[in-house]
Structure prediction request, 134 residues.
Amino acid sequence: MVPQDISIVFFDGVCILCNSSVQLILKNDCKQYFYFATLQSDVAKEVLLHLPEEIRQKDSIILRDKGRFYVQSAAALRIGYRLGGWWYLTQILWIFPTFFRDYIYGLIARNRYKWFGKKEQCMLPDPKWTARFL
Prediction:
């Protein structure tokens, strides 16, 4: 059973861009706020089971933060908010309408394998971060 009170970033475990993003979050998450699980994992199946199908099937990261779920650009901006520091500057992007932010996000997400590549298997986390992966 996954604790309800932790914030989890669900990401595509075989996507090189997604893995790089997770590494970036880990390096900047001084408060160790986020935990991680691949969208391919049993944890994702358990936690995301009750979400509507159209959300679970999105080509997106999914963030569970304080019991709420965020997808696409909202998830990315919420992560920036939680990281604080210079990452807090990403909050200026909220001024753009959701449809515009999600269009740009979707364009990158749909082309991520072509532009950045794909691994054959999910990444193995650095041993110092293993406890943050569910």
In short: Residues 7-122 form one domain. Residues 50 and 109 are 23 Å apart (CA to CA).
